[in-house]
Design brief:
The chain has 18 helices and 19 strands. The protein is α+β, with helices and mostly antiparallel strands. Strands 1, 2, 3, 4, 5 and 6 form a 6-stranded antiparallel β-sheet that branches. Strand 4 and strand 5 form a beta hairpin.
Amino acid sequence: MTNTDLAKKIAFQILTHFDKSYRWFTRITRGAKARFENGEWQATQTASQSRIHIYEKCVSEAVSDIYQQCHINLRDPEFWREVKDAFTLLLQQHPQFELAETFYNSIIGRVFRHTTFDDNIMFLLPSRCFLAGRDREKVINSFDTTTTVAQMYETIFQIYRFKQPFENKSRDMANLEAALRRRLNTQQLASVCCAELLKPVFYRGKSAYLIGRICMPDETLPFVISIHTNEIQEIYVDALLTDPQDLSVIFGFARSYFMVDTQHPAEIAAFLQELLPNKKHFELYMSLGHHKHGKTVFYRNFLQHLDNSTDEFERAPGTKGLVMMVFHLPSYGVVFKIIRDEFAESKKITRDHVKACYKLVKLSDRVGRMADTHEYVNFHIPLARIAPSLLAELKASCGSSLTITNETLIIHHLYIERKMTPLNVYLQQEKDEEKIKNAIDELGLCIKQIALANIFPGDMLHKNFGITRHGRVIFYDYDEICLMKDRNFRSLPRSDDPYALDTLSVAPDDVFPEQFEHFILGKKQFKDILKALHGDLMRPEYWRSVQAITASGEIQNFTPYNPAMRFARTDEN
C-alpha cells in the first residue's frame, strides 16, 4: 500500500470514529425528551456525565486503530499532510465538519503527544468558512403572526408535543398571551412579521426550553418558552422570556450543558449568536455539549485576539491562591490557572487530588453556581507578551509545568475559566449598601445551592467566589471540594472549661459550621449581613439536612431566570 493510499485509509478511519462518536452523542441527547416526560431526573444526570465521557473513549479507539495500521514513528510530516488533505476532502459535504475537525485535532494531539501545533497537519484554522443561514430552514420553525396571538401559540404547541398532558393548557395559553401583550405594545405587536423557534427543544435538568425570537422590521426580541413538569409529570409553562439578559443567564458559563438533538450544530450556534451577540461563539458550542469543539473555537479566538492586541499577561487581581497560580490578559475575558509545584502547609492535598476535584465539577450539575473550566495541554503563549514579573513568578511557583523556548512559553497543564470580579475585591470597592447586601445574599445562596447539588465547597473564603456583571455570585476554587457524604458536620462542644476546644478530638472529615462566620467573610459588617440572611449556614443541623436530601437522590431544580418572570399556577386566567 502506498503512502497516499494509507493516508486516505487513516483519514477515512478517523472520520468513521467521529461519526460513531456523534451517533452515540446523539442517541444520549435524543433520550432527553423521554427522560423529561417521565421525570427520570437521576437518569438525566447520568446521561450528562456519560455524554462527556464519549469523546475521550472514541478518540482512544481511533488512536488505537491508527497504531494498528502503521508505525507512527516512521511517518514523516509529509505523510500527515496527506492524511489531513484526505480528511479535508471527506468533509466537503459533512453536516458536522467543524466538530470532525476538532476530533481530528484530538487524534493528532494524541499521536504527537501534544507537542506539534502545525496547521499543515492539524486544523489550527478551519478548513472553510461556515456560511450561516444556508441550512437555516433545517433548524428553524417559522410561525405565522398574521393571525391572533392565541392562534400562534396553539400552532406552536401542535408542533412541539409532549407525551404527557398539560396541567392546565388553557391557563398556560392565557398566561403566554398575556405575557407577550405586556412586553410588546400595540404598535410592536402589529409590526411582528414572524416568530422563529429552533426545531430542537433544549433540555437541561428538570426544564425544557423552546428557544427563538420575535421578528419585527427594526428589531428582534428573544422568545423563549420555559416548560416544567409537576409532581405527576403533567407539563406546564413556567415562563415566557423576552429579555436578552434572561436568555444570557440561561446560557451562562456556570450551568450544565444542554441536551439539543440536531444534525446541524453550526447552524444552531450561529442562530444563538444572533440572539446573544455578547456571548463568545465558543461558549455557545459548549452550552450545546460540544465542549471539546468549544475549546478549539476558544483557541482560534484567543490567537486572533493576540494578533489584535498589545497588552501583556499579568497576575490576576485578587488574593494569591495557595494551590493555583492565576494570571490573565487584561483585554481578554478569561483567566489562566496553573497548579503550583508546592502547596502551603495548610493544604494537605496533592496535584492529582486537585485534578480530580476539577473533573468532579465538570461531571456535576453546576446549577449556575460553579464556573465551567477547560483543561489544556501544552498551551502556547508568546514569550514577548508575558510581563517580566509574571514570568518570574511562574518560574518560581510553577516551574515543573513550563517549558520556555526563545519565543514561546509552553504550559504543560492549564485550566481556563471565565473572568469574574473576585468577591472580596468587589466588597472592598463597592460603596452601595444595597449592592453589598445583594452580593452577600448571593454568596449565601451560592453556597446553599452548591451543597444541594451534592458538592461541599470546602474552602468558603469569599476570595474563592466571583461576581458576574449580572450580580450573580459564582464559586471557582475547587481544590477542597468533595461530595456532601464525605463530611461529618458537628456541633462545637459546650463547656465552661476554657481548654475544652484544645482537647477536642477532630477527624479529617469533621466540619464545625459554627466556625464558618469567622472565615467566610472578614469584616464584622459583612458577617452580620450573612448571619441575618443565611444564619442557617452556621448550624450543623442545616448541613445534615442537606446531606439527607442529597443522600436520598432527590434532584434539585434552580430556576436560572428571574423568579418574577414565573407564571402563577392558579386556575384563574
